[in-house]
Design brief:
21 strands, alpha+beta, Flavocytochrome C3, Chain A, domain 1, globular, FAD/NAD(P)-binding domain, 22% strand, 15 helices
């Protein structure tokens, strides 16, 4: 076989960033801009940073101009709190919202091509759950670059970090976090292209590894979002916060599940069932199509469950329609050109003249590695881990609570990227700590076990079974019996995976080996989601329990799930920060445990 279990190279740097999407590159840009000569290394699973999942973000970026005569940051804070189903941490909400406009100016001053209105000012569009005056009417709060805003952000950030000397390690995987005592001192990285393991020493390590959407059968997530960060965390004894908080985007294109941006509803798209009834008025009488995503997703699934869906003959999937036929030609050409092209390419539908088939698709993980408002990783309700940060979708600060409002993800990426960078720079004057003597041992034990299996069951078949049970039992609707059935099957799949044989017995260019490692991470992520869902016996935001359909006050707290051994979990709780409510300032009453109606 020729495998040598050793660290082939040790690299030293000031800051190691695992992930090179929007959050990671914004963090890198801030550090490189403020600390000249600082060495920053970014590791990415993909072939180029611009292949990161941030590039697929379509609709916009929410932020309030402090000089806006109509909108106010306090309205954005309220919408985020209400949208979160009263589970976002209010100290985080306040800090991110108040920093948002500064980040818009930062991007614009560095060349991002935001769309403009007829007067040459930044154009704005509305999104679900964004309102003026605490819910009175829709707010036009999101700035955007046509329907490819994420690509614009990535182009801008990539230019900033390249000209300041960042180092990239492409198509590589972080397999182990390294600690010297209680301090994180770097990570082990495996490169399939070379078949070698590298240990990277760093004064600060930043996790920016994206989501875990590949846990589900139909997802808007890219192929690389396999929950690697969640596995890294729990293997080192760290908890995952609110793993049960999973968002299903209402409008995934039938078949591939590719995102059909919320922009479609913000520009006037109408959801219709098989009778062409505009049904959202039954579920959200005031906001209709512009209700938050969890409400719209459940409305669509309910229409299908009750027999008002349409069976797609090509894919054998039931769906509803989104109707864009009444929109002006210039909207199709200038505001939704990319989404329109997706419908044409994947389902051969012309958005100008035909109804478009959509169904909810797994989209975003509100849960993740717990952090404070500076992105510092927490190992308990309040204890931070020295030298370790987490930002973006892989983290849970928690800005989104149990339901993320559209456009708030990009806002979180760029603000938390900056906050973490500013805090990490405080550690850069310290000595570079040594690596632990057993660096890589956990990785080597795991990878050697992959080559020990001889079962003929394939990695792909196990992965498909996992996706199917998670979609059916731990998807938009959940109940205790279904969740327990999912947990039981996940334990069975884990046992089968440990026996799974690999056809190639080498480390070099072994895609099956990569997929076997990803399968472990996916099973870990799935188990964390299922366990969180089992223990939260209520309905809250994107977590809907049919056996407990109402919100319950005893669960006004975050879930912390520890799982150092697969399936053996320990549950702890963290209080929701209610600073805005408890400080008693203007509008404090708006930030209590309020009723959530739209």
């Amino acid at each position: 076989m020729g495998n040598e279990w050793k660290i082939s190279e040790v690299i030293s740097c000031d800051v190691l960033i695992l992930g090179a999407g929007g959050a990671g590159l914004r963090c890198a840009a801030e550090i490189l801009e403020k600390r000249l000569g600082c060495r920053v290394i970014a590791v990415t699973k993909v072939s180029h940073p611009q292949k990161s999942h941030t590039s697929t973000a379509q609709g916009g970026l929410a932020a309030v101009d402090p000089k806006d005569p109509v909108d106010k940051p306090i309205y954005h804070m309220f919408d985020t709190w209400k949208g979160s189903d009263c589970m976002a941490d209010q100290n985080v909400v306040k800090r991110i919202v108040e920093a948002g406009w500064e980040e818009i100016l930062w991007l614009e001053n560095r060349g991002m091509h935001f769309s403009r209105d007829v007067d040459g000012k930044l154009a704005r569009r509305t999104f679900g759950g964004h309102t003026l005056n605490f819910g009175e009417t829709s707010a036009y709060r999101a700035v955007f670059e046509a329907d490819r805003t994420g690509k614009g952000i990535m182009d801008t950030l990539w230019g900033e970090v390249i000209k300041r000397g960042i180092s990239f390690i492409h198509q590589s995987m972080a397999t182990e976090l390294l600690f010297n005592g209680d301090r994180c001192v770097g990570a082990v990285v495996f490169s399939p292209k070379s078949g070698k393991f590298t240990a990277i020493r760093a004064k600060a390590t930043v996790l920016a590894m994206g989501g875990c959407g590949q846990v589900f059968k139909i997802t808007t997530n890219c192929r690389q979002n396999t929950g690697d960060h969640l596995a890294l965390a729990v293997e080192t004894g760290l908890p995952v916060m609110d793993p049960e908080a999973v968002q299903f985007h209402p409008t995934g294109i039938v078949g591939p599940g590719i995102l059909a941006s919320e922009t479609l509803r913000s520009v006037g798209g109408i959801l219709r069932n098989k009778d062409l009834e505009a049904f959202m008025e039954r579920y959200a009488p005031k906001m209709k199509e512009l209700a938050p995503r969890d409400l719209v997703a459940r409305a669509i699934e309910t229409e299908i469950r009750e027999g008002r869906g349409i069976l797609n003959p090509s894919h054998g999937i039931e769906h509803v329609w989104i109707d864009l036929r009444h929109l002006p030609e210039h909207v199709h050409k200038t505001q939704i050109p990319e989404v329109a092209s997706f419908f044409k390419k994947f389902v051969n539908v012309d958005t100008r003249t035909e109804l478009c088939p959509i169904r909810p698709s797994n989209h975003y993980h509100m849960g993740g590695i717990p952090t404070n408002e500076d992105g510092q990783v927490l190992k308990g309700p309040n204890d931070r881990v020295s030298g370790l940060f987490a930002i973006g979708e892989c983290a849970c600060a928690s800005f989104h609570g149990f339901n993320r409002l559209g456009t708030n993800s990009l806002l979180e990426l760029i603000t938390m990227g900056r906050f973490a960078a500013q805090k990490a720079m405080e550690d850069l004057d310290q000595e570079l700590p040594p690596l632990p003597p057993d660096a890589g041992s956990r990785t080597f034990e795991k990878f050697s076990s992959y080559f020990a299996g001889h079962s003929k069951v394939t990695v792909g078949s196990l992965r498909e079974r996992m996706k199917a049970v998670m979609t059916e039992k731990v998807g938009v609707f959940r109940n205790e019996q279904g969740i327990k059935e999912a947990i039981s099957l996940l334990e069975e799949l884990k046992e089968e995976a440990q026996k799974c044989g690999l056809r190639s017995r080498d480390l070099l260019m072994n895609q099956e080996l990569v997929e076997r490692w990803e399968l472990d991470n996916l099973l870990t992520s799935a188990m964390l989601i299922a366990q969180g869902a089992l223990h939260r016996r209520e309905s809250r935001g994107g977590h809907f329990r049919e056996d407990f359909p109402e919100r319950r006050s005893e669960f006004d707290r975050h879930t912390l799930v520890y799982m150092e051994q697969f399936g053996k979990v320990r549950i702890d709780w963290k209080p929701v920060d209610m600073t805005l409510y408890e400080e008693g300032g203007p509008y404090a009453e708006k930030f209590g445990m309020i009723e959530r109606k739209y």
